[in-house]
């Protein structure tokens, strides 16, 4: 019996914006850190020395090696890159996909040794990936985990399925549903039927949490608020997290703000990073216009103009016909950018409107001979939505079956990295 | 480096979260560190402002079965951390050795809170170092007076016992090193040799003297054989009185206890570093092949354009067609096989077997295979896989 199975598994959910990590069996992750690595790149771009003078070359080489080992992650990385110019920030994950494997490896190393302080040989690992990840990238993950960290077992789970599993413990057993995952870097609408992802119906939207932040930043700049330019993105992010909410109707909301500005307009106070002088600015219409980007994308950009409820509806309509009712019944939210107040109410109302219109139209077409049964639309929201994926992973990894479902080190040595290629969640399809 | 920090980062993070929260939080969190240390933090809205911290840690022992209760002197030390905030609960929770009741209302909301919470989260370090100190104090003065410096075997992680030898002028700590993987042994050996070299150079005259040897040091003579069989030798540190003066004592003890964790961290980091370097190198090697592939594609496209030529083909006699075809295939062959890689000819002469008609590389993929595997043509290799697997490529581990 492997002693590692007696210990709880380590669950790491790498998101584009934030990484959630902790031990299985807990309700919330130990750490939520920004997914960023600060690398000392002062030696990388230097020309190779022409002269073959041994000692000089050696000194320079070892200095380069030392610089290569000099890195940090998370909040520390952000602070370091601000205070000194030798560090470059590198974001290993872009739009939900790992772009820079070197940075990712460094990130994992720091997560395991300096944050969780555990020996990777002692614990099983559960990592997550977005539903559109290529099998190759899954292989790379497996290679890094088994070769570098020598983990006894690894499971790579699909984020939306975990998000569904998180809802499953709070209410009833339901592994069919649409997961609306709005993260910092990617937004996916993923239908899941009985725990299997319907891969052909996955829809993605080029609007994510970062776009909301950018939109707020733009609005504040256009209104002429005195926010220092180097800080404006950070301020916009904080404003988004603290003050934004979803309104039911933009026109009414504008009127409300105009009638009672004292009630709705908030103050943001900060200090300028360069001079340290305090400043303050007003937060007005941004509060409801930010999240509105999902419902009326045309206010943000002209490239993509399909509202989120329409995308969800299209996604369900493209799923197999016998699953559609169950999918409408269980629309699950996950990811930090679904945390706006009343987001789920608005989504449910808009989705219901689309569905009802369709039912009415079909009734009219049939001439009132047969009435369609009303379709139940339910958008589920729960308090742990922000790290629902992590929580789902924690639940999954604390079941005894988890250890048997893992790819083990022995299997890896037997077959190579190709064992990570297939994911059981997709097995129904290919 | 956080693995040398006394305070546990996870514990600190949780305590901070409870302390900063405006509303009482419901928290029930289990944290595991170093494989065998287990913390449990509990805080509930009904029992404010208290939070409960339970700890279960492997105790330092001399290899003998010992009661799992903490001795009195250790409890005394624990009481010493922030006396007005922390209180020891009489009967610890089931499965834990110690439960602390933390009165969060007494922690000020100022800068002092950072220090206090850091102190509380280093409770495990306090427990361990108090034990080590006690053990060293209890070494039979009788034995010492007779000049018998018997090694004391200490077990902290069950798999990794180490020895402490108390001598009049110094204390020697000996760590038998064992690793599961062959590569780890190589990396660690290199590291220890380097450590010894640096330690004995002029730069670190004040650091504890460090010796690595593949065979057990003479101090350990007479110990049971299973303790003396290792695959990576023995590392010993000589601690003199200078290293245990005043505040340094705590730090020295903690560093010694976590020497294993540090070496493991170093080995894993080195592996990551090697992998990164190899990936970089492989990318550089594959680059000329990819550019060659692109060039070749362009050439073929150019050939396929000629429409007039087709007409000519049709009007010609059969013999002529055959002749031309031969010419044409020869041309294609020439284009295909001659990919210009700077210095490749020399490389080929030296490393690759002479191209027999069978092994002649027909496509770029085959060429890549020859380039990568040298004289191991029976290994399967995918040139587009840029992520290297060291083991996978070695001939004797191939499937």
UniProtKB/TrEMBL annotation, chain A:
Subcellular location: Cytoplasm, Cytoskeleton
BP term (GO), one: Arp2/3 complex-mediated actin nucleation
Keywords for this protein: Actin-binding, ATP-binding, Cytoplasm, Cytoskeleton, Nucleotide-binding
SMART domains attached to this UniProt entry: ACTIN
Keyword Cytoplasm: yes
GO cellular component, as recorded: cytoskeleton
Predominant localisation class: cytoplasm
GO MF term set: actin binding; ATP binding
Record bears the keyword Cytoplasm: yes
Family membership noted in the UniProt record: Belongs to the actin family. ARP3 subfamily.
Protein name: Actin-related protein 3
Organism for this UniProt entry: Sesamum angolense
Lineage: Eukaryota, Viridiplantae, Streptophyta, Embryophyta, Tracheophyta
Automatic annotation (TrEMBL), chain B:
GO cellular component: Arp2/3 protein complex
Family: Belongs to the ARPC2 family.
Keyword Transmembrane helix set for record: no
Top-rank lineage group of the source organism: Eukaryota
Keywords: Actin-binding, Cytoplasm, Cytoskeleton
Identification of the protein by name: Arp2/3 complex 34 kDa subunit
Job description of the protein: Functions as actin-binding component of the Arp2/3 complex which is involved in regulation of actin polymerization and together with an activating nucleation-promoting factor (NPF) mediates the formation of branched actin networks.
A molecular function (GO) term: structural constituent of cytoskeleton
Annotated localization: Cytoplasm, Cytoskeleton
Gene Ontology BP term (one): Arp2/3 complex-mediated actin nucleation
Entry annotated with the keyword Cytoplasm: yes
Transmembrane portions of the chain: none
Subunit annotation: Component of the Arp2/3 complex.
Species classification: Eukaryota, Viridiplantae, Streptophyta, Embryophyta, Tracheophyta
Organism: Sesamum angolense
């Amino acid at each position: 019996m492997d002693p590692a199975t007696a210990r709880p598994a380590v669950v790491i959910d790498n998101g584009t914006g934030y990484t959630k990590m902790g031990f299985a069996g807990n309700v919330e992750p130990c750490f939520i850190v920004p997914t960023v690595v600060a690398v000392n790149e002062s030696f990388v771009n230097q020309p190779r020395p022409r002269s073959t003078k041994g000692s000089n070359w050696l000194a320079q080489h070892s200095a380069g090696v030392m610089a290569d080992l000099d890195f940090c992650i998370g909040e520390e990385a952000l602070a370091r890159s601000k205070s000194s110019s030798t560090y470059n920030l590198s974001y290993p994950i872009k739009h939900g996909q790992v772009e820079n494997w070197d940075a990712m490896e460094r990130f994992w190393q720091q997560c395991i040794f300096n944050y969780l302080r555990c020996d990777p040989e002692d614990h099983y690992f559960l990592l997550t990936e977005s539903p559109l990840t290529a099998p190759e990238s899954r292989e790379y993950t497996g290679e890094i985990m088994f070769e570098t960290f020598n983990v006894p077992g690894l499971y790579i789970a699909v984020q939306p399925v975990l998000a569904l599993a998180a809802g499953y413990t709070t209410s009833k057993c339901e592994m069919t549903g649409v997961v609306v995952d709005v993260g910092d870097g990617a937004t996916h609408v993923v239908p899941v039927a009985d725990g299997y992802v319907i891969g052909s119906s996955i829809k993605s939207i080029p609007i994510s949490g970062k776009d909301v932040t950018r939109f707020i930043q733009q609005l504040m700049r256009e209104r002429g608020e005195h926010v220092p330019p180097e800080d404006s993105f950070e301020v916009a992010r904080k404003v988004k997290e603290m003050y934004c909410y979803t309104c039911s109707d933009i026109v009414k909301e504008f009127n409300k703000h105009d009638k009672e500005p004292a009630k709705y307009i908030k103050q943001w106070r900060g200090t300028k990073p360069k001079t340290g002088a305090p400043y303050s600015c007003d937060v007005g219409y941004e509060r409801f216009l930010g999240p509105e980007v999902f419902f009326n994308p045309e206010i943000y950009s002209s490239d993509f103009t399909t509202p989120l409820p329409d995308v969800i509806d299209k996604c369900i309509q493209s799923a197999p016909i016998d699953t559609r009712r169950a999918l409408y019944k269980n629309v699950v939210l996950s990811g930090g950018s679904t945390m706006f107040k009343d987001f789920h109410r608005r989504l449910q109302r808009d989705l219901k409107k689309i569905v009802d219109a369709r039912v009415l139209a079909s009734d009219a077409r049939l001439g009132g001979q047969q009435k369609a049964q009303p379709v139940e639309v339910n958008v589920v929201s729960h308090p742990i939505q922000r790290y629902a994926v992590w929580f789902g992973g924690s639940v999954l990894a604390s079941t005894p079956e988890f250890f048997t479902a893992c790819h083990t080190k022995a299997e890896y040595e037997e077959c190579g990295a190709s064992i990570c290629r297939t994911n059981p969640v997709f097995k129904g399809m290919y | 480096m956080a693995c040398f920090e006394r305070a546990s980062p996870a514990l600190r993070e949780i305590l901070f979260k409870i302390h900063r929260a405006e509303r009482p939080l419901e928290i029930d969190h289990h944290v595991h560190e170093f494989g065998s240390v287990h913390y449990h933090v509990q805080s509930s809205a009904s029992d404010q402002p208290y939070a409960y911290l339970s700890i279960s840690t492997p105790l330092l022992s001399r290899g003998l079965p010992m009661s799992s209760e903490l001795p009195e002197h250790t409890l005394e030390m624990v009481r010493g951390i922030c006396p007005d905030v922390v209180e020891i609960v009489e009967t610890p929770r089931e499965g834990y050795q110690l439960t602390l009741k933390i009165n969060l209302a007494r922690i000020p909301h100022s800068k002092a809170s950072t220090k206090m919470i850091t102190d509380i989260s280093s409770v495990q370090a306090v427990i361990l170092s108090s034990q080590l100190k006690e053990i060293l104090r209890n070494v039979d003065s009788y034995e010492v007076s007779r000049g018998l410096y018997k090694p004391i075997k200490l077990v902290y992680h069950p798999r990794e016992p180490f020895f402490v030898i108390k001598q009049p002028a110094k204390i020697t700590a000996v760590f038998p090193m064992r690793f599961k993987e062959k590569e780890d042994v190589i990396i660690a050996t290199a590291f220890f040799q380097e450590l010894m070299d640096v330690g004995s150079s002029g730069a670190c005259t004040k650091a504890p003297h460090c010796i690595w040897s593949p065979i057990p040091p003479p101090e350990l003579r007479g110990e049971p054989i299973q303790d003396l069989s290792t695959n990576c030798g023995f590392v010993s540190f000589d601690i003199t009185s200078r290293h245990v003066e005043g505040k340094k004592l705590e730090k020295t003890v903690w560093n010694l206890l976590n020497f294993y964790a540090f070496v493991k961290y170093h080995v894993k980091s080195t592996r990551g570093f090697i992998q990164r370097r190899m990936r970089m190198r492989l990318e550089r090697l594959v680059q000329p092949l990819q550019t060659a592939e692109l060039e070749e594609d362009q050439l073929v496209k150019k050939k396929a354009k000629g429409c007039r030529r087709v007409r000519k083909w049709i009007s010609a006699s059969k013999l002529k067609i055959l002749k031309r075809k031969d010419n044409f295939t020869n041309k294609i062959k020439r284009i295909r096989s001659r990919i210009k890689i700077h210095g490749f000819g020399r490389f080929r002469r030296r490393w690759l077997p002479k191209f027999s008609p069978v092994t002649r590389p027909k496509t770029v993929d085959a060429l890549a295979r020859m380039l990568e595997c040298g004289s191991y043509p029976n290994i399967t290799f995918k040139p587009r896989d840029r992520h290297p697997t060291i083991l996978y490529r070695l001939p004797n581990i191939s499937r």
